[in-house]
Write a structure and sequence with these properties.
mainly alpha, about 90% helix
């Protein structure tokens, strides 16, 4: 599950970097929210990543028990 969380965070970060390159054009058309949506998506990925790490650890712990 962790790779999915990391993949989602990388997708948001990548989109944010692309929008950062076009920041002036976005501002000219009133679409600066898109950059902040990418930042929010990346930041919301952090609790998701931590949740997936805990989930995977619990699964491994259960599988290790006889």
């Amino acid at each position: 599950m962790v790779p999915f969380a990391i993949g989602g965070m990388l997708a948001w970060a990548g989109a944010g970097l692309v929008f950062l390159l076009f920041r002036d054009r976005l501002a000219a058309h009133g679409h600066t929210d898109w950059l902040w949506i990418c930042v929010a998506g990346f930041l919301w990925g952090i609790p998701g990543l931590l949740t997936m790490i805990r989930h995977d650890a619990k699964v491994r712990r259960r599988q290790a028990q006889p």
